[in-house]
DNA sequence: CATCGTTTTTGATCTGCATCAATGCGGTTG
DNA sequence: CAACCGCATTGATGCAGATCAAAAACGATG
């Protein structure tokens, strides 16, 4: 299966404070529309751990992540939590046409979001076709990501889940990072063990144990608090259970 | 959390052979666009068990389910399978802007699909805003469903998974079925134990055992091959682990 | 109606991950 | 520097669901 997700291709052209992430598309929008966007946008900052909105709360804006990481999570009555969205810079939050959040939105790291009041944003969508088209494309990408995630949750072992997550972060982060000549890959893993466990449908103890196992086997190296080095990306990939081709790497 | 999914509201207005499912929206499209749609559409039938397309295969059409049930599945190298989409009549298949299928598409029951050659369909999307808007809305609904599904896969027990699936099918099917006066709900469960296990991330043995357990406790009654009766829907709902309000029932 | 293939049920056993519990490790604060 | 806090690691044990295996139910077919 060759999965040429447009997510990856677009990523290198991101513009953090553009609501629709893809500079090439924005440039095609009429300039007065862009001006109007400028007028209705504002920034909000959050500290790591803070909640942006709770599931069920009124949410009268849509937004895109400028810097940091936000998560979407669902919680069951008894407290069991499952992350259902991981938002990196340039990712979009919020659903046009709905006025309450369906998920807890949380700042996993210090976070800056670029917000747009929802009503004006929706109005603009009506007469700016590119906006809707771009949003559709992004939503389809997210749906693909969600389905990949479902395979992970439903069928992968703990070890495969961990390897997959590390590879996913590495891929999404790597465009911004340097890659050493020998294929070594160095980047930040900005999630706590607990956040990782919520992403993977595991307990944090299992996450910790499996991280230790991968470390002992030399598949990953941890440097300091959150910095991670992957000496051989392809070898780690083999632990994910995914198709070896994968369609695209980095 | 009140989840007023537009999926449910729209459902009662479905038109099976309309590509975009919602008659009220279609009616707003200019009639010559509708005519052109008519010209490029054609029907395909499949028997239960047949594969519509394999992951990675060329897919030069988009389609909507007319009758029957189709599934989207991902397969790992060693054969582990996870269902990632369950398509009932009026649901949409295929991604504009991608020419290979990312998933195995399979007929879970006898199936009729209404297909549109992709190129003309994409052309038409460009100058029929409503088409894109409707598609965006449907994709957002699917994303919400996928995220609900992720919670099920990552955090629910086998028992909760089974109860959830039965309730999901009951809800989606129920609009077409009769509901007895005493709150009893009778409908078809058109999935094999294996298909259920692929949906839920379980083995078919576990599915069978948990179905038996629910049957013994009187939460469900099976009549003949695939007919299911839920004597008390609310009581079954309590077994799903979901918020008791749920936002919307049936 | 007997036979056969498919699907489902049930049983016995095993195991991967959860659970419960304690210890370690920086980083921050008084 | 000591005390403390949040986070991570490691250990001991239990259990839900997987696995392996067999029998039963059901429908189709000659």
Question: Which characteristics define this entry?
Answer:
Arc Repressor Mutant, subunit A; alpha+beta; 9 helices; disordered N terminus; 2 domains; homodimer; DNA-binding; globular
Describe the structure concisely.
The structure is a homodimer of 250-residue chains. Chain A has helices spanning 6-11, 23-28, 31-40, 118-126, 129-155, 158-174, 193-200, 204-216, 233-237, and strands at residues 41-46, 51-53, 61-67, 70-75, 81-87, 92-93, 104-107, 111-117, 185-188, 221-223, 227-230.
What does this structure look like?
The structure is a homodimer. Chain A has about 250 residues and is of the alpha+beta class. Chain A has 2 domains: about 5-150, Sandwich (Jelly Rolls); about 160-235, Winged helix-like DNA-binding domain superfamily/Winged helix DNA-binding domain (Arc Repressor Mutant, subunit A). In chain A, about 40% of the residues lie in helices and about 20% in strands. Chain A contains 9 helices and 11 strands. The first copy, chain A, has helices spanning about 5-10, 25-30, 30-40, 120-125, 130-155, 160-175, 195-200, 205-215, 235; strands spanning about 40-45, 50-55, 60-65, 70-75, 80-85, 90-95, 105, 110-115, 185-190, 220-225, 225-230. Chain A has a 4-stranded antiparallel β-sheet. In chain A, a hairpin with a 3-residue loop joins β10 and β11. In chain A, α6 (about 160-175) packs across α8 and α7 crosses α8 (about 205-215). Chain A starts with 5 loop residues before the first helix and ends in a 13-residue tail after the last helix. Residues about 1-20 and about 20-30 of chain A have low confidence and may be disordered. At the A-B interface, β5 and α5 of A face β5 and α5 of B. The structure holds a DNA duplex (30 and 30 nucleotides).
């Amino acid at each position: 299966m060759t999965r040429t997700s447009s997510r990856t291709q677009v990523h290198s052209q991101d513009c953090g404070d553009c609501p629709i992430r893809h500079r090439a598309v924005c440039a095609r929008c009429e300039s007065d529309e862009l001006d109007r966007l400028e007028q209705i946008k504002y920034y909000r900052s959050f500290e790591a751990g803070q909640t942006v909105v709770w599931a069920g709360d009124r949410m009268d804006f849509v937004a895109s992540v400028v810097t940091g990481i936000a998560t979407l999570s669902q919680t069951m009555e008894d407290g069991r939590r499952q992350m259902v969205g991981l938002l990196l810079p340039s990712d979009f939050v919020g659903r046009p046409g709905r006025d309450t959040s369906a998920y807890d939105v949380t700042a996993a790291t210090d976070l800056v979001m670029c917000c747009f009041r929802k009503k004006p944003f929706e109005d603009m969508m009506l007469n700016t076709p590119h906006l809707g088209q771009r949003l559709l494309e992004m939503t389809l990408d997210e749906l693909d990501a969600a389905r990949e995630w479902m395979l992970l949750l439903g069928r992968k072992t703990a070890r495969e889940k961990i390897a997959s997550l590390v590879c996913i972060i590495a891929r999404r982060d790597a465009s911004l990072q340097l890659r050493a000549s020998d294929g070594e890959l160095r980047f930040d893993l900005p999630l706590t063990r607990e956040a990782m466990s919520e992403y993977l449908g595991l307990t944090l103890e299992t996450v910790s144990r499996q991280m230790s196992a991968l470390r002992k086997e030399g598949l990953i190296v941890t440097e300091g608090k959150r910095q991670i080095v992957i000496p051989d990306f392809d070898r780690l990939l083999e632990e994910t259970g995914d198709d070896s081709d994968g369609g695209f790497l980095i």
